[in-house]
Amino acid sequence: MISRYHEDKRQRWRLMILMIVTLAMIGSLGVTLFGMQVRQRDHYEGSLSRQSIRRVRLPPQRGRIFDRSGRLIAHNRPSYDLVLYLEEFRQPGAWANTIGKVISVMDELTVLMGEPPMPDEDRVRTHIHQRLPLPLIAWRDLNARQMARFAERRRYFAGVDIQVASVREYPFSPAACHLLGYVGRADPAQDDPETGRAFYLPEFEGKAGIEAQYDHLLRGEAGGRLIRVDAAGYHWGDISERPAVAGADIQLTLDIQIQQWTEQELADSQGAAVVLDPRNGDVLALASSPTYDHNRFVPVIRTADWEVLRSDEHSPMLNRATAGRYPPASTVKPLVAMGALINGIIDTQTRIECTGSYRIGQSTFIRCWRRQGHGILALHDALKQSCNPFFIDLAVRGGYGIMLHQAAAVGMGQRTGIDLPFESAGLLPDEAWKRRTLGDGWRTGDTANVAIGQGALLVTPLQMALMTSALANGGRLWQPRLAMGIWDAETRSMERLPPRLIRNIEWPPDLLRAVRHGMHAVIHARDGTARRAQVSGVNMAGKTGTAEVGPKHLDRKHGWMIAYAPFERPRYAVAMIVEDAESGGITVAPRIGRLMEKLLAEEGR
Amino acid sequence: MHTLWMRLRLLIRMNWMLNVSALLLLGIGFLFVYSAAFLRHDSAQPVLLYQQQIRWSILGSVAYFGLALCDYRRFRSVTWWCYIVTLILLLMVLVFGIRIGGARRWLALPGVAGMTFQPAELAKFAVVLGVAQFLGRAGPLRTATLLAGVAAITVLPVVLIAVQPDIGTAAVILPVVWGMLFAAGLPLRWVLAPAAAGLLVLSMIFGALILPERWGADPETSQRIAEMTGMREYQRERILVFVYPDRDPMNRGWSKRQSQIAIGSGGIAGKGFLEGTQNILGFLPRTVAPTDFIFSVIAEETGFRGAATVLGLFLLMLYSIGRAALRARDKFGRLLCAGVLLMLFTHIYINIGMTIGVMPVTGLPLPMISYGGSFMVGTMALLGLVQSVYIRRIRFPSADAHPVLGDS
Fold first, then answer.
1. Residue B399 forms part of a structural domain
2. In the prediction, which pLDDT does B42 show?
3. Which of A135, A306, A402, B143 is 20 to 30 A from A43 via CA?
4. Which of A36, A121, A201 to mutate to test the interface with B (most CBs of B within 10 A)?
5. Which chain A residues are closer than 8 Å to B319 by Cβ?
6. Is this complex scored with an ipTM above 0.90?
7. How far B208 CA sits from the closest chain A CA (Å)?
């Protein structure tokens, strides 16, 4: 152990050494500085005057989208844009001077272009503050005349150039507009010093539908090039380049032809329809009406157009097929029947009398749609005639638990997990839900209402198509899917995505057969509710529904129909809803008939 | 009244060289934060950066004079509380921290909307205090025990900062602690061994990033080896940009290149206040000009004369801190000053080194000058402690006489 005195002395020595070393190192910085600022000054001055280096962004090609038979449904076309490299407009003093300069140059260009530039002063300011290294796009999509005019006079416009960008085009628009979505200008990303990636981010990003869902695959990555330009904008040569990376192509399960047929059937009304392949969950069509022209979003939507679309009371931008929540009405009855059969509440021959209404407790009556009643009938006729008291009786006797179990099994109250953003889960009410929202217990009347698809139960058209698909294929719940292939740049081939089974519902085949035969009669019997869906040569099964919505006195009704075909080996499962309809049987059934006819004729070819 | 007066009279015994250099550096800081943020002035900014900076420096001055008046030896008893509070704040930042650009480093100040602070800045303060306290204790301890204790004090906050992630701040603590071990007079082999280990790790990281590609390994293997360092992509890129200046000049290499042009083109006399083209025209990225790259702005606008003046002021400041250490009454005070000296030195060296291209880009601020509240207040508090040590220095030191050793 050294003495305190010695320790002290040693520490002083060490401190002196530390001081000398640190001061010397700071001094060495001074020496380097001297070298840079005094001896090599000319070198850096030179760099400064060579600062007419322009950073050119090389925008990526966005991945294309194909339908299932390889038809292009979203691709890119070149757009020649007039851009301003703002770094070359810099003026001494406050930034406002530079903005003023940019505005005055754009004013001069307006004469050549024949139309005012897209950015206003605010836009120029935000561009300078948020994305200075990127060129400011002043006019998009020049025509040949504008290009020629500019080429003639370009030497007077330093820092202005033509840039080729690729913009989206949807050849079948407005078909599948909700499903494909659209692209829009990416939110201006502040240059993040941590990652420094903002420069390479594409200008556009998917804002809705498939474009948004698979944006990470479709968008690719921008490249960049440093070029040396002189004051007249002449390119002296490249300094370095990093190529852009194209986005991946995607193939959808969608058949654009079927999509167009489906949309035709909805054209004159508000509503939605989904066509699934019950064998694997492929979405063949997913339509919502009204539609909008998503080509209007290309390259960027005008503010006025956007306001019109947004404020339209028919909400054309809403994808009703996945985000619309409707009461399923009588289309839920096959499910009630399955529950009752499986749990032995009835067998296929059990007969129940319909007097035209069903009494719950002392004073509550639920009417059958046929006032005089259906008389005594069994399951087959009850489905065919869509008899309310029959199914209410099954549900009330069996208890709500059975109903709840079946509805959950076919995916009600849950998102199907389709690869689209903003899917709604619908609403599958239970006792806990009712306590939470209404502060009341579950009553028999609630069970009765849900059994005929009224009350709190809400579904999306996609969920109904999924249920139909499960009834058609014997209980297999395939997850609805849109992407079936993604282009793999490495193997240079489409990578196939496998279908995904959500679950296998245990439905005894003989019981299911009884329900399916009832659904067959719905269409093919002379007194079936969907007899208007009959078309020659098409053997199918289905169920109609008419949902009462809103206050009673308005008498608003939505018409439903679900169907699958061909009856023996189903390849199509369809669910369609038409808002403000007369009834499912009158309004929707003929549309389903026409659609199925086309679908199967197509198959036969 | 009388005791208050006695207290204030202590101020006369302050180290005036330190006072003056700190004041001048602060002033330079205000001027050039103003200049570096000048571009922003026409956008709607509610409070201008330099005004904000002046507010922070007032808070810093309160800490500076307050701590100078307190007897630093009293801090020995609260050291561990400071340390524990810092650890709690570091844990809080991991949970409640505000996320900016992929890292959680900031805590919202309660009661002041929009104000944030960085507990990591506090941690630098707490570690210096903790290590000085531990090494400065009266009782003798074996060297191995001392080392283990110091390691324990250091590792906890360093790891908590590194996972935010803020590798730069975490890493800057290590050389400071190492320097304090050296200053504490530990046997040289005990001091050199950790330094050697550190250098080994550092060269392994550099090697893992650079060598596989140099030796012709295919890109995938190089990538895998690079990922084994556990660093994020942007962190690796910063090192690669440092080694290969022409890598990605459009993007990640941009600020370093522009900073060097700014400094070099400043020449001897500079381009004049608010006349620096690199700064005013926005070649230096606006997000970092008032903070990490403030020195480039100074060097461009005032030239070598100004830049050398700033370096001279820093030399003066470091020298006066060193003097306070040499004349400290006790071991605790001496180590405290040594810690502050090292802390400021590493920041100055790494920051200025980064702007002139001899160090890789890390987000370390320049003491007293860079815009940023937590670090400013922290630095001034540390300087206040140094003053407190200096005020209570040994009055008549003589090389021959045994000094009266500090009681504790």
1. no
2. 46
3. A135
4. A36
5. 19, 23
6. no
7. 21
